[in-house]
Specification:
single chain, about 425 residues, alpha/beta, Aspartate Aminotransferase, domain 1, 2 domains, four-stranded mixed sheet
């Protein structure tokens, strides 16, 4: 119902093409000089939206790049630990794994599965940090989410950043689904590193992400990925003479800003479209508050509708009525997770079929079946809703967007029910295993 990779309006598309045409008309002029001016305007617009200084705000291509930039710039010593969470985005979890192979860093995971309350997540984090410290280890950094990708739930990042501060742990926030999705005041949050995609919810072209690093931590970010012209040797205090962007050689910008001003030859036009995207959100959609309220309300209604159609439930904290908007913390976002009647069992032990299951698959089949469902949606119905295995069931994730309304989800309910019936009849089981 909404692209996992974001969507943007025609006015933003047209602005991007203007930038691309201007680039092609005179590549040297645009890349060396003109683009930098547009980049500063875009950074200023986003810094104002997020309530942070301009000189703490730069761009990277996506949230995964931002997380890698933060974590790979830190120097690790024996005994250092990174704490991450069971529902971390898979690419970021693999970044953690990669770091444990190439540095002395150790990793500790906060284990849980949804549904779970924010309070319980925070307590489990505290317990993991305490356990590591009791072992004489140094908890160097923690990797947090704003909105978890799968399941699509709000994460207690505000409380966790506070815990990190109290414990002397660096906080690295993966806000891939943050900016444009939920209210963000990064000045108030004051995380040590924060990255958020603009192409998912802010309506910019992809890839485009904001990377915020407060001044106190900018000395830790020694290089971009890849290392480029803005890199300075530790013994140097002057811009590199090989920097192709002459306008960046002035004294008005910090070395941190210069570091990210030109990172290899890529299409930077998505960054430059941020002012146009913000103008569209303000003048056409009615502003940030109206957008976020509409999308969250739509996601709630859509989740309730799908759950009723499937005879299942919306993911919510234990003991909370999922329809109680004020009570549920994990539903305070523009995503809803609906359980399908397809159960997932561990084939290595004697399976227990849960009540309400209309089909049962093995855990080995789950990923293949989810891809089959998504592929059938794309090729047959020209839509897609992510499906994933979690806590012994197959779930689906819905997103509310300004270009959708409840009628779209009523239509999708019929699509989902039809596909589920095909699974129950056995049509999908063997086909799923063939998908590569």
């Amino acid at each position: 119902m909404a692209s996992s990779f974001g969507a943007f309006p025609k006015v933003v598309r047209d602005q991007r093409r203007k930038f691309q045409d201007e680039t092609e008309s005179s590549p040297d002029l645009f890349i060396r000089y003109t683009s930098v001016q547009h980049l500063d305007v875009a950074r200023a617009a986003l810094a104002k939206l997020l309530n942070v200084p301009l000189n703490e705000t730069v761009f990277v291509q996506n949230a995964t790049t931002g997380v890698n930039t933060a974590l790979r710039n830190l120097a690790y010593a024996p005994g250092d630990v990174i704490v991450y969470f069971a529902t971390a985005y898979a690419a970021c979890a693999k970044t953690v794994a990669s770091l444990t192979e190439t540095t002395p860093l150790q990793a500790r995971k906060v284990e849980y599965q949804f549904p779970i309350s924010h309070g319980e997540i925070v307590q489990r984090f505290k317990d993991v940090v305490k356990q590591a410290k009791d072992e004489g280890l140094n908890v160097r950094v923690a990797l947090l989410d704003t909105i978890v990708s799968q399941p699509g739930v709000r994460f207690p990042f505000e409380e966790l950043v506070e815990v990190c501060r109290a414990e002397g742990v660096l906080s690295c926030v993966d806000g891939a689904h943050g900016v444009g999705h939920i209210p963000l005041d990064l000045g108030k949050l004051d995380a040590d590193f924060f990255v958020s995609n603009c192409h998912k919810w802010l309506y910019t072209p992809r890839g485009c992400a904001v990377f915020h690093v407060p001044k106190r931590n900018q000395h830790l970010i020694r290089t971009t990925l890849p290392t480029s012209h803005g890199f300075l040797l530790a013994s140097s205090d002057k811009p590199s003479p090989t920097n192709p962007l002459a306008v960046s050689e002035g004294a008005t910008k910090t070395s941190f800003e210069g570091l990210f001003e030109f990172v290899a030859t890529v299409d930077d036009s998505p960054y430059l479209c941020i002012p146009t995207a913000l103008e569209f959100r303000d003048k056409v959609c009615g502003g940030e508050d109206r957008i976020m309220k509409y999308c969250e309300s739509l996601a709630r209604e859509a989740g309730d509708l799908l759950a009723e159609a499937l005879g299942t439930e919306v993911m919510c904290e234990p003991g909370i009525d999922p329809k109680d908007a004020a009570a549920s913390q994990i539903r305070r976002c523009a995503m809803s997770n609906v359980r399908t009647p397809i159960a997932v069992v561990d084939e290595t032990v004697a399976p227990t079929v849960p009540a309400g299951a209309r089909a049962v698959i093995s855990s080995q089949q789950a990923a293949f079946l989810c891809r089959w469902l998504e592929k059938e949606m794309l090729y047959t119905y020209n839509t897609v809703v992510p499906h994933f295995a979690h806590g012994g069931w197959i779930w689906l994730r819905l997103s509310g967007q300004v270009y959708l309304e409840l009628e779209d989800f009523k239509w999708f309910a019929g699509v989902e029910k039809e596909l589920i019936e095909r699974v129950i009849k056995g049509e999908a089981a063997m086909e799923a295993l063939k998908i590569v």
